[in-house]
Design goal:
Bound molecules: iron/sulfur cluster, zinc ion
Number of domains: 1
Shape: globular
Largest sheet: 8 strands, mixed
CATH superfamily: Aldolase class I
Radius of gyration: 20 Å
Number of strands: 8
CATH class: Alpha Beta
Order of helices and strands: HHEEHHEHEHEHHEHEHHEHH
Strand order of the largest sheet: 1-2-3-4-5-6-7-8
Distance between the termini: 37 Å
CATH topology: TIM Barrel
Number of helices: 13
Strand content: 15-25%
Length: 366
């Protein structure tokens, strides 16, 4: 895969700022006990959209040494603070296996007793296929545990492009033959300039397309994350960028598009801009507009579009005017759309807020 020369290298202020924010964030990490290293960061079950039906997600977030991109010279992506969840101490393979087993054993009876179908999402705030984070032994352990659970119908993991290769995909498919598998990739936008200059992602769209084809050859799906409103774009620019990305990804026949409206995470360049009042997270109205303009109901027979925004309805996440009824209603509208995949739900908000009149002016300036 072609090495992406970091296009912001010439902008020393920018790169220096990302790195110094990252260093400060890394220093704030706490020492963890052995007990804590054997527990996942978090795990839960909740209602979710499966490929063909409404079911439940079982999500496990494993604690590993962290994303190599954030730990390395680049300083990581401008909006991502996940590295603070990583360990300072070495976390060994057996501890990660114990983390997985803890979550799995805790919930497996609920899952097998349940009549509903499940999607299992295993995240590690980095790359599942990076051997420095998750070893072969851990991956095989997880595949073996999951393979025979009948009502886990779908399996999702995340990885940066550089760690995805034919052998790893083949091994995954061979072990989980009966499941619908998706690899989640943080593409963020189809625009190389925005992705590499504004998000500092270090990734090219062409490489994404190569990996997408490799996944298709292995009968594995791709879930693409899109970032709604990267830093340095105003609201209208963000809407245009996201519409352009969705349209392109639908044409490429990705399986799932997950729209992540920005939320402000600690220790990031984005937080710095936010504290300086140079950044406002996106409006719900923008997200709804993006969906209506980029997707038609026929598209949704082939692609699943989801969005489960962190920090929604608060100052640091996607929000409208912060009035309670307004935020609750917008959140519900989004949830209804995601679960039903029915675009008409976007016009069925319970509460029409007066902030909708102010929004067209706001979106031009922030
Ligand atoms: S967004 Fe993904 S690739 Fe970027 S720093 Fe965070 S975990 Fe790493
Ligand atoms: Zn409002």
């Amino acid at each position: 895969m072609k090495k992406v020369s970091n296009p912001i290298e010439h902008d020393l202020w920018f790169l220096g700022r990302i790195k110094s924010m990252r260093q400060k964030a890394l220093k704030r990490r706490k020492n963890l006990s052995t007990f804590q290293l054997e527990r996942p960061i978090s795990f839960w079950i909740k209602k979710d959209r499966l490929v063909n039906e409404i079911g439940k997600e079982f999500t496990i977030i494993l604690r590993t040494k962290g994303c190599s991109w954030a730990l390395g010279e680049s300083g990581g992506c401008t909006m991502c603070g996940y590295i603070q969840d990583a360990t300072i101490e070495d976390v060994d393979q057996d501890q990660i296996i114990k983390q997985f087993d803890y979550a799995f054993n805790n919930k497996i009876k609920d899952i097998t007793d349940d009549e509903e179908n499940y999607i299992l999402k295993i995240f590690n705030s980095g790359s599942f296929f990076d051997d420095n984070e998750i070893s072969d032994k851990i991956r095989m352990h997880i595949y073996e545990k999951v393979a025979n659970i009948k009502n886990i119908k779908e399996f999702v993991i995340e990885s940066r492009l550089k760690y995805i290769n034919f052998e790893k995909l083949k091994e995954l498919k061979e072990n989980l033959k009966k499941k619908h598998i998706e690899i989640a990739i943080g593409l963020e936008t189809v625009n190389d300039y925005i992705r590499n200059y504004y998000i500092n992602k270090g990734m090219l769209f062409n490489d994404f397309k190569t990996v997408l084809n490799m996944c298709k050859e292995n009968d594995i799906g791709v879930k693409s994350y899109l970032l709604l409103k990267p830093p340095f774009l105003n609201e209208q620019g963000a809407i245009d960028d996201c519409i352009n990305s969705i349209t392109n990804l639908i044409n490429l026949k990705v399986n799932t598009i997950s729209i992540n409206p920005v939320n402000i995470q600690k220790g990031t360049l984005l937080e710095y801009l936010y504290l300086q009042k140079r950044y406002r997270p996106p409006w719900y109205y923008s997200l709804f507009k993006v969906l209506k303009k980029s997707v038609n109901q026929d598209d949704l027979k082939y692609v699943r579009i989801v969005s489960d925004p962190s920090g929604a309805g608060t100052k640091k996440g996607i929000h409208n005017c912060l009035k309670r009824e307004c935020e609750v209603s917008a959140k519900k509208t989004l949830r209804n759309f995601v679960l039903s995949q029915d675009l008409t739900t976007l016009d069925q908000s319970e509460f029409e807020c007066e902030c909708k009149r102010q929004y067209p002016f706001e979106k031009l300036f922030h």
